[in-house]
Specification:
154 residues; mainly alpha; YefM-like fold; 2 domains; 3 strands; 11% strand
Length: 154
């Protein structure tokens, strides 16, 4: 699941740049002192993704999926407005987009577009972090509803 490497605080001090590069490549760096884990260094996008999923899972009544519901979608303007209202905190965008994806309101491809991430890189993050993927509609009616929702944006 999580490729990880455990290093001491002394090793971190000696090779900070290397540890950060490993984290940016998807490896979790656990820093320990006297045999006790003290802190974890993770890639910022993994961190944002994990926080967004955790925030979603702690909400009441989730997932809010209804097989007969028409996907509502999510616009960049809505995200920008909410993010601006929160002092331009980038986590707000991740929280909104991931919640919409997990609720079935947007597709995985749309999720990647809204997060400005390459689709396959985002998919690799989901897989590496053990997060479930919902790729494509489960039934024909769901696919038609998604198509209809996307057609309304034009």
């Amino acid at each position: 699941m999580f490729p990880q490497n455990t290093i001491s605080r002394t090793e971190l001090a000696r090779s900070t740049r290397q540890a950060i590069e490993q984290a940016r490549r998807g490896q979790t760096i656990l820093v320990e002192s006297y045999g006790e884990e003290q802190v974890a260094i993770v890639d910022i996008l993994d961190y944002r993704l994990l926080r967004a999923v955790a925030a979603y899972r702690t909400q009441a009544n989730v997932p809010a999926q209804d097989i007969n519901a028409i996907p509502q979608g999510l616009t960049e303007e809505f995200i920008q407005t909410r993010q601006s209202a929160a002092g331009d905190d980038p986590q707000v965008a991740w929280d909104l987009v991931i919640a919409a994806y997990l609720d079935g309101q947007i597709s995985f491809g749309r999720t990647a577009v809204l997060l400005k991430q390459p689709r396959f890189e985002l998919q690799a993050r989901f897989n590496r972090l053990g997060l479930s993927l919902h790729l494509g509609p489960m039934v024909i009616a769901e696919g038609k509803a998604e198509y209809d929702a996307l057609s309304q944006d034009e």
